[in-house]
Amino acid sequence: MFLEKNISTQFNQVIEHVRNTHDTVKALGYAVLVIHNDQIVTEHYAGYHSQLQHAKAINEDSQFHIASVRKSYTGFCIAWALHYGYIQSIDDPVLHYLPDLDKVKLPSVGVFSHPPLMVS
Prior knowledge:
This protein is of the alpha+beta class. The chain has two domains: 1-64, no CATH class; 67-120, no CATH class. 28% of the residues lie in helices and 16% in strands. It contains three helices and three strands, in the order E-H-E-E-H-H. A three-stranded mixed sheet has the order 1-3-2, with helices on one face. A hairpin with a 2-residue loop joins strand 2 (29-36) and strand 3. The radius of gyration is 16 Å and the shape is globular. It comes from Bacillus chungangensis.
């Protein structure tokens, strides 16, 4: 699934909030990506992967170890999608709604109620 970019300033407050949180907790870096109406409307990267002198800058290919936090994000997204009728049941196969995932190399793709290991 490839999305077109249509960058706007509509979500600049999101970037500012993430930047403020970054500064407050003294994080090394962050990435912000907002998808709205099937388009990437906000994309922003800042910071580095480590404090080492030649550390790689955060960019669109960066991966973050977010541990159990992803469960909260995933749960919220699934609840939101159920509430608004984007998915009918948490027991539906993920591929029913995202058939393009079948073309991506993932460990496995399950149902919403019991997703497999997720790639972040």
